[in-house]
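Section 3.1: Structural characterization of target chains.
Under the original work plan, the team committed to producing a structural model for every single-chain target entering the pipeline before any wet-lab resources were allocated. The record below documents one such target. The sequence was received from the expression subgroup and is listed exactly as submitted; it comprises 134 residues.
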Amino acid sequence: MSKVLSPVDAGRYLLTRVFTPFEAFEQEEVWVLLLNNRQWITHQSMIYRGTINMVNMRIGEIFKPALRYNAASIVVSHCHPSGEIEPSPEDLAVTQAMRAAGKLLDVPLLDHLIVGRDCWLSLKTQGLGFEDAP
């Protein structure tokens, strides 16, 4: 098990355990990491596989594994097969929607990371989609 205390922990985990080898990811994929009360990753789940440059998400599907396994919080990630980590307006909108759903379900979204070739971007650290976060 791995502990996620910061975006760096989540980014390292995703680069070494999920999106590897990166070249194998020809389509965008959305993954969710489920965390317990002590912020240990208990499960990881691929939620969606999209196209080379987009994925349509239904917010309810993002939280399905979290509810099934009684997760205390989640970290969501998706890859950009281009290798670039620049967030799109859709990435920001879905982050805001996931945050709102997490509040309602009492399963907070801790972060949304975009993973590229040997790099990642924390939307929370950038204040993107997390504008009102502490």
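Residues 15 and 109 are 19 Å apart (CA to CA).
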